[in-house]
Design a protein that fits this description.
10 helices, single chain, globular, two-stranded parallel ribbon, about 10% strand
């Protein structure tokens, strides 16, 4: 995906990842293929709010504007772990991390929206069809065994293998919750800042074997393998992200969730603005900071 973006000669391409060696390898490939493109590498660990704040500070020092932000990182694990900030690891890494990083860059994003045609400034959140597994569990987002409201429970009909007897934690349900949060994050950004020119899309890239599966055991890998009839290459998976980031035709298509390069319906529990607003406030609590979108809309 980075090479595809670089081929269009952006003024600056910033790559962010927690592994500097991988960043340097991709940056080297870009410089060799497109020597006219300036590329910068920023170390970013989305499971650590301290790392996120450092990375955002670095990015803000590099640029006056951010035209497109693609939040494409995540984790899927079968066992319960917490981030260093005390948040369930999948929710913390897949949603809270991108939420914080985006908001820390939002002033620069809105500067781009001020001078660009409406809808060209975009935030892309990579989600998954797995968002259908679970709504956001506001009553027990950390999987501590607390009672859930009826609307927070997983939908009926999920495979029994998704659950372990006597355990409050399900890695699949936790993943589904985090992916629903990605969709709702896009819903709320567009709802609040769309009139100022910022649009956010959530993207299901398709079924792809990537490093996302590195923490899965044999049993869990078999379960995942049975969920798709067609498995995409990484290039095929990147296609929908690129459409979400750059395709001008989307400006004429209502909707915020994409699959197979097309606007598609998301699960009902991932579409309500009121739920998205509730998630926004919970996310602010989890990062210990309020973000004034009314102020951003006036910048």
């Amino acid at each position: 995906m980075a090479l595809s973006i670089a081929s269009q000669q952006p003024a600056l391409l910033i790559l962010a990842s927690r592994t500097l060696e991988k960043l340097d390898a991709v940056a080297k490939q870009i410089r060799e293929s497109f020597p006219g493109v300036t590329v910068k590498a920023v170390v970013l660990d989305l499971s650590s709010q301290k790392s996120i704040r450092r990375a955002a500070e670095e990015v803000n020092a590099l640029v006056e504007r951010v035209d497109v932000l693609i939040n494409n990182a995540g984790i899927m694990i079968p066992e319960r772990h917490l981030t260093e900030d005390g948040i369930e690891l999948q929710f913390g890494t897949n949603h809270v991390g991108p939420f914080l990083f985006t908001n820390l860059l939002l002033e620069k994003i809105m500067k781009a929206a001020e001078t660009s045609p409406s809808g060209e400034t975009r935030v892309v959140n990579v989600t998954s069809a797995g968002h259908r597994i679970s709504p956001v569990r506001f009553s027990d987002y950390n999987f501590e065994g607390k009672d859930l409201a009826p609307e927070e429970k997983p939908p009926p009909g999920l495979p029994a293998s998704f659950f372990k007897d006597g355990e409050a934690y399900s890695g699949f349900v936790a993943y589904g919750q985090s992916k629903t949060a990605n969709v709702l994050f896009s819903v709320y950004l567009t709802e609040r800042l769309g009139k100022q020119g910022l649009v956010s899309y959530s993207v299901h890239p398709g079924s792809i074997w990537t490093d996302l599966s590195r923490h899965l055991d044999e049993e869990t890998t078999k379960i995942i393998g049975a969920t798709g009839d067609f498995w995409k290459s990484q290039d095929q998976g990147a296609a929908t992200m690129l459409v979400a980031a750059f395709d001008p035709a989307l400006n004429q298509s209502p909707g915020s969730y994409l699959s197979d390069c097309q606007v598609a319906p998301a699960a009902e529990h991932a579409t309500e603005v009121a739920t998205a607003e509730r998630l926004w406030h919970l996310s602010e609590e989890l990062v210990g900071e309020k973000f004034n979108l009314d102020r951003q809309s006036r910048l």
